[in-house]
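task queued by scheduler; priority normal; single chain, no ligands, no partner chains; default sampling; output format set to structure tokens
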Amino acid sequence: MGGRHRARGPDHYAADVVSRRVLLGSGTLVVVAGSLGGLRLTGRDDDALRALGVRPRPVPDPADTSLLTRAAGEQAVLLGRLVSERAEDDPLALVLTEQLDVLGGPPVPADTPEDPDAAETLARAVALAGRRREGDALAAVSPDLGRVLAAVAAGLAQVALALEAA
């Protein structure tokens, strides 16, 4: 028939067909990669690492970092307003200072935001900041940060009540 045709031997056949070992190895790799990806997407990868005896390193969520930065910035602004209207050793200033320390201390001066409630009275500004912390506590990814922000919100509500009563 025109062309030369050679008989294929067993060596040639093995090169054309995927071996069982390669097929099983590839399948196992796909299952493992899919499982790891699924654990990562569902947030259960830390649990899997702990089950294997590995202690995962916590990485803060970027959304939590921005919540914390904003809360510290607003707290610094409120503290500045309170100190300018009252004394630095005022008990309410000490409360706001302790809360600022819990939030990580004052932000870098360039990062300090403008006072969102500058036109409000100090008591109203503190109450509004407390409500924002309540919302931040609910929005926090980390349960620990949520608890801290909720505690700060409760403290701000108490400071607002004390300022209104004064």
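post-processing summary
- The chain has two domains: 10-51, 62-165.
- The mean pLDDT is 80.
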